[in-house]
Amino acid sequence: MDRCKLDSMDAENYLSALAELSLLTIEDDDGMKCQTTDKGIEFLNTYHRLRWLLWGKENDFLLVRLLEQMKKKEQHPFYVS
Questions:
Q1: Which of 48, 47, 38 is CA-nearest to residue 74?
Q2: Which position among 21, 37, 48, 70 has the lowest Cβ density within 10 Å, counted as fewest Cβ atoms?
Q3: Which of 3, 36, 5 is nearest to 21 (CA)?
Q4: Per DSSP, which regions of 1-81 are E strands?
Q5: Please, are residues 78 and 35 in contact by the beta-carbon 8 Å criterion?
């Protein structure tokens, strides 16, 4: 979370809100594991389409690349350190 400039309380609140909205699943075995749900992926795709409508596809290449990476890693969770 250091790269996000969030302290632990802010990060916990943010992740809890995402989990409450069913956009993210959180497992706390040895370390914290977070995985985007199907609803979360759908939300990101909808967000991408809205951004594309508002600002054009030239400004959204990073989000497109992120979504492609997430599709490849559907079986593997994302880890938060």
A1: 38
A2: 21
A3: 36
A4: 24-28, 32-36, 78-79
A5: yes
CATH of the domain at 66: 1.10.10
Q: Which domain holds residue 10?
A: 2-79
- Using the structure block, give the residue that is written with the tokens 């956009």: 23
The tens-digit pLDDT sequence of the chain (81 residues) is 567 677 888 888 888 899 999 999 988 777 778 888 999 999 988 888 887 777 776 666 666 677 777 776 655 555 554
Q: What is the identity of the amino acid at 1? A: M
The CA distance from 65 to 81, in Å, is: 22
Bridge-partner residues for 27, per DSSP? Answer: 33
Domain count, the chain: 1
